Amino acid sequence: MKNKKTLIIAIVAVVVVALLAGIYFIARPTAAQGEKTFTLTVVHSDSSKDFTITSSEEFLAHALIAEGIINDEGIETGMYFTVDGETASWEENQSYWAIYIADEYATVGMNDLPIEDGGVYKLEYTIG
User: Fold this and answer.
1) How far is it, in rounded angstroms, from Cα 43 to Cα 50?
2) Res 32: pLDDT
């Protein structure tokens, strides 16, 4: 009897995980193909700078690397510490680069943030 309960629980868990994975793959953000023009504002610790970028890259990190705004140091981890020459350091002063889509805090990192034509993005130096 105990083995049947364990088997049923395991089957239910597998079905739930499969459903959640399916929902994620259907609803995940996808990038538009082709050339896109978007606006990026970099809010430094003491100033801000606006960029208008045209790129055929699908995701924000790759477009910013191609423009030289960030370097590819974080491509493996998705953690970028230097933006437009300014470095944030959590260890030093609990600073980091916050990512916004328009004025909304992004729920994904730059590696997974699809670029939309006409999109408005912001990287803001933030002290946590």
Assistant:
1) 9
2) 54
pTM above 0.90, yes or no: no
For 54, residues 6+ apart whose C-beta sits below 8 A from its C-beta are 35, 36, 37
Residues 112 and 49 in one domain: yes
CA nearest 86: which of 121, 50, 43?
Answer: 43
Q: Token match 């049923």: residue? A: 8
pLDDT recorded at residue 128: 84
- The more confident residue out of 11 and 36 is 36
Mean pLDDT of the 38-57 span: 97
What beta strand segments (E) does the chain contain? 36-43, 48-55, 82-83, 86-87, 95-101, 104-105, 120-127
Give the chain's domain count.
2
State the CATH number of the domain containing residue 70. Answer: 2.170.130.30
User: What residues make up the domain containing 26?
Assistant: 1-30
pLDDT score recorded for residue 4: 78
> What is the structure's pLDDT at 25?
56
3-state SS, residue 16 = helix
Q: Does 61 lie in the same domain as 90?
A: yes
Whether 123 and 77 map to the same domain: the answer is yes
